[in-house]
C-alpha cells in the first residue's frame, strides 16, 4: 500500500513538472487540433449547426425589437437614447461570445464530477483547466457574435462615433476586458460543484444575471449598482468598458481599470476552479 502511495505521489510530481514546462505555443497547437476535430464532428450534423445559429440570432433579435418598441413610447431612459442602449446591447453580446463559445463545457462540469468521469482529467501531463474547457466549442456563439457585431455597427453609425485606429483598438481591448468578467463569473459558479451537490442552480442564477448587462448601471438604484459593480460585476460586461468609446467625455475610473480588474477576476476564478479540481477525489466528492 505504501509503495502504491509513493508511486502515485511520484507520478503526480512528474505530471506537475511536465505541465510546468508546457509553453503557450504548445497549448495553442493542442487547442487548434482539438477545435478542428470538434468542429468536424459538429459539421457532420449541418442541420443542427444551422438551426442552432438561427435560434441564437432570433432570440437576440427579440431583445433588439424590445428596445425598438420601448423607445417608441419613451425618447430616453434616464438620459440614455435608443441607439446608446443598442450600443450597450451589441457590446454585451460580443463580450459574452467567448464564454458561450470557448467555456461552454463548464455547464457539464457538475455531471462529470458527480459521475466520477472528471477523474480522467486528473492524470494527463497538461493543465487540467485547459484540458477540460478545450473539449467543447459551442458553435451557437457564432450566431450571437454576428448579431452582436451587426447591432454594434448599426448603433455606432447612428451615434456618429468617429471610426479611427484609436477607437477601434479601444473597443477591441475593452471588449476583451468585458468578456473576462462573464468567463470568471461562470468559472466561479461551475467550480462550486466540487463542494456543493446539485449546484446547477448556481450556474443558472449566475448566467441569468447576464440579462442585466445590456442595461446601463446608472438606471438602477444605488443598492443594485453596488451589487452589479462589486459583488456580481455584471456592470463590467458592457456598461463600464463601453463608456470609453460611447461617452469619452465622462469616463469613470472603473472604466479605465476594467482591463486590470478583469484579468485579476479571471485569475482568481481560475485559481478557485483549480482548487476545486485538486480537492476532487472521485465520485461523491
Tell me what you see in this structure.
The protein has helices at residues 2-21, 24-43, 46-70, 82-102, 109-115, 128-133, 140-159, 165-191, 200-208, 222-231, 239-246, 253-279. The chain is mostly helical and 285 residues long. Residues 1-15 have low confidence and may be disordered.
Strand content: under 5%
- Main β sheet profile: none
What share of the residues lie within helices? over 70%
N-to-C CA distance: 22 Å
Helix count, DSSP H or I runs of 4 or more residues: 12
Number of strands: 0
Give the topology string: H per helix, E per strand: HHHHHHHHHHHH
Which structural class do the helices and strands define?
A: mainly alpha
- The parts where pLDDT drops under 50 for at least 5 residues are 1-15
Radius of gyration: 21 Å
Oligomeric state of shown chains:
single chain
Principal-axis shape equals globular
Mean pLDDT: 85
Key attributes of the depicted protein:
285 residues, mainly alpha, 70% helix, disordered N terminus
Task: Describe, in short, the structure shown.
The chain has helices at residues 2-21, 24-43, 46-70, 82-102, 109-115, 128-133, 140-159, 165-191, 200-208, 222-231, 239-246, 253-279. It is mainly α and 285 residues long.
Give the topology.
Blueprint: H1 2-21, H2 24-43, H3 46-70, H4 82-102, H5 109-115, H6 128-133, H7 140-159, H8 165-191, H9 200-208, H10 222-231, H11 239-246, H12 253-279
Helix pairs in contact: 3-4, 3-7, 4-7, 4-8, 8-9, 8-11, 8-12, 11-12
